[in-house]
Design goal:
- By secondary structure, the protein is α/β, with parallel strands linked by helices.
- The chain has a domain of 190 residues: Rossmann fold (3-Layer(aba) Sandwich).
- The strands form 2 sheets. A 4-stranded parallel sheet has the order 2-1-3-4, sandwiched between helices. The chain has a 4-stranded parallel sheet with strand order 6-5-7-8, with helices on both faces.
- Strand 3, helix 9 and strand 4 form a beta-alpha-beta unit.
- Helix 10 crosses helix 16 and helix 11 runs parallel beside helix 13.
- The chain is globular.
- The mean pLDDT is 97.
- It binds Double cubane cluster.
- Double cubane cluster (BJ8) binds next to helix 7, helix 9 and helix 18.
- The site of Double cubane cluster has 20 residues, from helix 7, helix 9 and helix 18.
């Protein structure tokens, strides 16, 4: 990575502590990613992004701020980025996926909080992530209890707007979400000083739909056998999609899809034909959380799809592009975002249906349902997931883990036994 110390210092970061993170990441990435054979050439872009992870994109965001633009940090798939981009802002995903940030999170949160929340809060309070320093405002949401309380801690240090999520999916809940998006629009307009109009909202809808279409193209290629892309590489593309420039994200994903489609025509895969295919479902895997995929793909199987927020939920369902009025656009946004199936909703049959559908579409031999420790919502929903899959005769393995490596060998044993059982 080029030298960004001056930039990090100007952001008020704890540069000394941050250097420790920068020192371990290249080795972790090399061991997990660069050791893979036969990777598509177009993964070079994503490797480059990781090699400059706290440099290139943060520098772009700072340039945007210097030109008078605002950066809003988000943590959840329900927050409509379209509003931010329509108002000339940039929305960037902020979820923390490293154990490095957890101890700082534990200074202000109970230890028995999920690692995603602890890492996200720790990255801010420990001043060890440029993205968390750059964001002018954080956008939270009332999804799980842990997040709700985390916003209160973060709000002591940075402006936070919290969107009040419905917990059910009745027509009145969609109506409520339209209202919340309206409130969010007002906040964003005031914060950026720019109006959200029918025209700039339309442009933002098309921009983000293009990104969704491109990511979907890459995922569609994963249905092939032999599979032309490893699950680890697909996960990396998704993790970067959360904070990359959306236009560039679409361009790079389309280039990768072009290459993968050619690989399929040539019968060229990263794993041998017939390698056992795994669908992963459960809690999100924020960068640099590559643990589960690495374990699966070094245990004789390949991950072909993720039903989670760092997977299909991020790009499935487009926002209608044929709205005639701004009211129709708001309604289209609310309808699209409310199609996400997070365990914070009750009931959440839509997620079970999605898992069954995706297992068939991606020809999965088995499903691994992964839960981040202390995420009660996904943990409890695991029972229904297991029951539905068993009913359909699809083998399922439930796992719980965190960001540490202490359980890696135990997980490897269980995953290995599961893959072997698949025959
Ligand atoms: S839409 S999954 S991004 S809420 S893992 S913090 S739920 S205790 S991340 Fe999520 Fe939005 Fe849902 Fe997706 Fe809480 Fe569970 Fe932690 Fe979670």
């Amino acid at each position: 990575m080029a030298d960004y110390h001056e930039m990090w210092e100007s952001l008020g970061m704890d540069v000394k502590a941050h250097d420790q993170l920068c020192a371990v990441l290249p080795t972790a990435f090399g061991d997990t990613y660069l050791s893979q054979e036969n990777r598509p050439e177009n993964m070079a872009y994503y490797d480059f992004v990781v090699s400059e992870i706290h440099g290139v994109r943060p520098a772009e965001l700072i340039e945007h701020q210097k030109a008078g633009g605002k950066v809003l940090g988000t943590f959840c798939l329900y927050v409509p980025d379209e509003i931010v981009f329509a108002a000339g802002g940039i929305a960037t995903g902020l979820c923390g996926g490293s154990q490095f940030w957890v101890p700082d999170g534990e200074k202000v949160l109970p230890k028995n909080t999920c690692p995603l929340i602890k890492a996200s809060v720790g990255a801010r309070v420990g001043r060890t992530c440029p993205f968390f320093r750059i964001a002018d405002m954080y956008v939270g949401e009332t999804t799980c209890d842990g997040k709700k309380k985390a916003w209160e801690v973060l709000a002591e240090d940075v402006p936070v707007h919290v969107m009040d999520m419905p917990q059910m999916k009745r027509p009145q809940d969609v109506q409520k979400w339209i209202g919340e998006i309206g409130i969010f629009r007002d906040v964003v307009e005031k914060f950026t000083g720019n109006k959200v109009t029918k025209e700039n909202l339309q442009a933002a809808i098309v921009l983000l739909n293009e990104k969704r279409r491109a990511l979907a193209r890459v995922f569609a290629c994963r249905k092939a056998d032999p599979v032309p892309l490893s699950g680890k590489d697909a996960l990396l593309m998704m993790q970067i999609a959360f904070y990359d420039d959306p236009g560039r994200c679409a361009e790079m994903a389309n280039k990768l899809a072009d290459e993968l489609e050619q690989r399929i025509r040539d019968g060229h895969g990263v794993f041998a034909k017939g390698t056992k295919r795994i669908l992963v479902t459960g809690t999100p895997m924020a960068i640099p959380n590559w643990k589960l995929h690495h374990l699966i793909e070094t245990s004789g199987a390949v991950v072909v799809c993720e039903e989670c927020c760092t997977g299909t939920r991020y790009f499935e369902n487009l926002v209608a592009e044929d709205c005639q009025t701004i009211e129709e656009q708001f309604s289209a946004l609310a309808k699209r975002y409310m199609k996400n199936n997070c365990a914070c909703f009750t009931p959440n049959q839509g997620r079970i249906d999605d898992i069954l559908r995706l297992a068939k579409e991606y020809k999965a031999d088995g499903v691994i349902d992964v839960n981040l420790k202390f995420c009660t919502l996904y943990d409890m929903e695991g029972r229904d997931v297991e029951r539905a899959l068993k009913k359909e005769g699809i083998p399922v393995l439930g796992l719980e883990t965190d960001y540490t490596d202490t359980d890696a060998e135990q997980l490897r044993t269980r995953i290995g036994a599961f893959v072997e059982m698949l025959g």
